[in-house]
Amino acid sequence: MTDRKLVFLDVDGTLVDYRNTIPASAVDAVREARGRGHLVFLCTGRSKAEVYDELWEIGLDGLVGGNGSYAEYRDEVVLEQTMTAEQCRRVVDWLHERGLEFYLECNAGLFGSENFETAAQPTIRNYVRGKGTTDVESLTVRDVFPDMIFGADLYRTDVNKISFILSSVEDHHAATRDFPDLLSGTWGGRGAAALFGDLGVPNISKAYAIERLVEHVGARVEDTIGFGDATVDIPMLEVCGLGVAMGNGSEEIKAVAGHVTDDVEADGLANAFRHLGLVG
Question: Which domain of life is it from (predicted)?
Answer without folding.
Answer: Bacteria
